[in-house]
Structure formats: structure tokens, C-alpha cells
UniProtKB/TrEMBL annotation:
Stated name of the protein: tRNA (guanine-N(1)-)-methyltransferase
Positions of the tRNA methyltransferase TRMD/TRM10-type domain: 1-227
Entry keyword set: Cytoplasm, Methyltransferase, S-adenosyl-L-methionine, Transferase, tRNA processing
Main location (coarse class): cytoplasm
Superkingdom classification of source: Bacteria
Length: 229
């Protein structure tokens, strides 16, 4: 899978060189290319923003550098990519979306800063591929970089081969609509806290039943919004 990222802070994405995704890049499973938006400016100050038409607080990212950056990325891409613009004004990012995006051959993340990107950039991007504005949650970050990082990790780990044991992807929070069950490892007793005896019983049916109950109980307590009415 190919992932391009456009940002005025490409250094944010240096961490993609470590851990699981770093390994996946080394193995050629993920082709991640990070681009500095300022490379597509042509003035001495490498300007990427300007004041908003109609007035208001903050600055808006200018369309011209974005147009050039998207042109450069799509010039050597075979298929039409899906453009993901992280935005608090976007649709909510979910595990289902991560699963769907992990099937795609080419994603382009456009990271906005300031009050956002000139709206015409989204219209132009729609001529080059599908466009999605996606929010990580109901809170505001300083820009799209951290949100893009989170989405790249959520999507990248679902690309076949990236996580060594695919079974570990199945029994996770959100994969079956519930939060995951609690996990324990050795020792069975630690500082007076004991592992629930059912997990030591060797009774696989009883263990599966207990885990399911725990999932439902936790979900009811912490995320009742996930349960059907
Ligand atoms: N940019 C700023 N806030 C954001 C959020 N909550 N989700 C995605 N992108 C953002």
C-alpha cells in the first residue's frame, strides 16, 4: 500500500521509521512518502497561509501550494487515490473505516494547520480521486499531523503482513462492536491480586463465556453508546 503525506511539519512523521510500521516499511509492505508543502511555494518566505476572505480569526492555508503538491503526487500514481484530510469538521474515524482504507492501494493524507485549508482545494482534489474529511474525535488539535499519524497507524496495522499474528487483530476492542476483555499473564498472584480463576481452569468454553461477559459489562460501563438500545 502507498501512503503519501503532505504537511508543513514533515518531521512529525519521523516516528513512522520505528516499531511495527517502520519494520513494515523496511519489508516493502508500506510505501510511505512524506512531502513538505513548503516545497511547493515560490516566494522568499515560503508562504502557505493568508487571511480569510470575509474576515475572522486565524489564517487559512492558500490553495496554490496544495494544488501543486497534489499534482506532483498524482502525476506518478497509477490509480486514483483516496485523499484524507484530517479535520475536526469531518466524519468520525472508526475501526470500520480503518478496515476499509487498509484495502486501498493509495491514500494521500493532507494535513492542514491554522483555521484550515481553502475549501477549493477539496473540490480540486475531488477531480483527482475520492476525498474524505475525517475527524479523530470531538476535540480540536493544532493541525492534522497527529490525527494523520493515528489514522496511518490504525490503517497500516491492518494491511496484511504488517502484524505478524493476524489472530491478534480479531480479538481487539471495536472489532466485534464491543470493548476487549481484560488480559492477564504470569504470575497468577501478584501483590495480593489474583488472576480470575476461570482463566486457570483450562475450560475453553467457560473462558470464552467469561470473556464475553466481561466485554459486555465493560462496554455497558464505559461506552454504552456502542450497545444497541
Ligand atoms: N485537526 C484538528 N483537530 C482534528 C481532529 N479532532 N481530528 C482530525 N483532524 C484534526
Amino acid at each position: 500500500m502507498r501512503i503519501d503525506v503532505v504537511s508543513i511539519f514533515p518531521a512529525f512523521f519521523d516516528v513512522l521509521e520505528v516499531s511495527l510500521l517502520g519494520k513494515a516499511r523496511g519489508a516493502g509492505l508500506l510505501d510511505i512518502r512524506v512531502h513538505d508543502l513548503r516545497e511547493h511555494t515560490h516566494d522568499r518566505h515560503r508562504t502557505v497561509d493568508d487571511t480569510p476572505y470575509g474576515g475572522g480569526a486565524g489564517m487559512v492555508m492558500k490553495p496554490e501550494p496544495w494544488g501543486e503538491a497534489l499534482d506532483a503526487i498524482t502525476a506518478d500514481a497509477g490509480e486514483r487515490p483516496v485523499f484524507v484530510f484530517p479535520s475536526p469538521a469531518g466524519e468520525r474515524f472508526t475501526q470500520a473505516q480503518a478496515r476499509e482504507m487498509a484495502q486501498l492501494p493509495h491514500l494521500v493524507f493532507g494535513c492542514g494547520r491554522y483555521e484550515g485549508i481553502d475549501e477549493r482545494v477539496f473540490s480540486y482534489a475531488a477531480t483527482l480521486g475520492d476525498v474524505r474529511l475525517v475527524s479523530l474525535g470531538d476535540y480540536v488539535l493544532n493541525g492534522g499531523e497527529v490525527a494523520a499519524m493515528a489514522m496511518i497507524e490504525a490503517i497500516g496495522r491492518l494491511v496484511p503482513g504488517v502484524v505478524g499474528n493476524p489472530a491478534s487483530l480479531v480479538e481487539e476492542s471495536h472489532e466485534d462492536g464491543l470493548l476487549e476483555y481484560p488480559s492477564y499473564t504470569k504470575p497468577s498472584s501478584w501483590r495480593g491480586y489474583d488472576v480470575p480463576p476461570v482463566l486457570l481452569s483450562g475450560n475453553h468454553g467457560a473462558i470464552a463465556g467469561w470473556r464475553r461477559e466481561q466485554q459486555i459489562e465493560r462496554t455497558r460501563e464505559r461506552r454504552p453508546d456502542l450497545l444497541p438500545d
